[in-house]
Amino acid sequence: MSPVSRRRDLVRPYVVTGGRARPSRNTLDLVTLLTAVPGRPAAALGPEARAMVELCRGGYLAVVDLAAHLALPLSVTRVLIADLLDSGHLAARNTHRPAGTPADRDTLERLLDALHAL
Amino acid sequence: MPSTLCETAYVRDSVRATVKLLVAGAFGVGKTTLIGSVSEITPLRTEEVMTQAGAAVDDLTGIEGKLTTTVALDFGRLTLGEDLALFLFGTPGQSRFLPLWQDLAHGAYGALVLADTRALQRCFDTLALVEQHGLPYVVAVNRFPDSPAHPEAEVRQALDLEAGTPLVTCDARDHTSSRSALIALVAHLHHLTGA
């Protein structure tokens, strides 16, 4: 058994979120970018939330990056991130295409050029 | 839990647009291999907790009290130019992962569906999920050393592909070959926006 799954058995996923399965906001995509807001102390936060803020002090990370680095399920990660956005510890940069909007031709063109140049 | 990461783990500050593409297919078809051959970060693994959906399929003998099951999700990232970050999500193609698909397909531009000619039928579920979510896609046959060589027309027919859906071949272990498969997908998506 890996260290991660052992920890999972000891702390059920939603204990971390106080039993909540849904985040306080629905705008968090898997690739929404997050960074820590300077000057917001994280000492009073729970261990997972504190680790998130500390990781985000180094720059921008996507929602999935945080879930992977902290070995937390995505749904739990989202609840915690939404809390940290509400409390002003984290700031989001919405860079992804809003759902329901047509694919952006200009972005695809630049993507194509960049892949050819890779 | 780590409290710091190396600099390359972060998305560059200048990134203003993120593009999400799915690399979808059955277990063992080479999704993570393909992502790893083009990603600038070692593919990361995250998990999602799924309730009920998998319960009828997963063997829960001995753990009857378990109401949730987890599914692993691998992903990689590529920074392109100054301001573009491409996220590639390895997406398991079995229909029991439907709840996960809704999340992954949200805002995704399209999907590269990986197929294995040794077992083409394993691709059907994936194609059904991609179509159900309205995602444009390209099929890439991942050539394994013992893959039988089928004429393209036969593969197209077996997968019941529409005439406009591109079919390419790749070696998921090879950077250039995987990049070409991605280029085929993005070119197709680009073509569709002009239609």
Automatic annotation (TrEMBL), chain A:
InterPro entries: DUF742 (IPR007995)
Alphabetized Pfam families for the sequence: DUF742
Protein name (database record): DUF742 domain-containing protein
Species, as recorded: Streptomyces aidingensis
Automatic annotation (TrEMBL), chain B:
Domain of life, source organism: Bacteria
UniProt KW keywords: GTP-binding, Hydrolase, Nucleotide-binding, Receptor
Pfam families in UniProt: ATP_bind_1
Coiled coil ranges: none
Organism the protein comes from: Streptomyces aidingensis
Keyword Flavoprotein appears in the UniProt entry: no
Entry protein name: Signal recognition particle receptor subunit beta, a GTPase
Single GO molecular function: hydrolase activity
Record Gene3D superfamilies: P-loop containing nucleotide triphosphate hydrolases
SUPFAM superfamilies: P-loop containing nucleoside triphosphate hydrolases
UniProt family annotation: Belongs to the GPN-loop GTPase family.
CDD domains given in the database record: Ras_like_GTPase (cd00882)
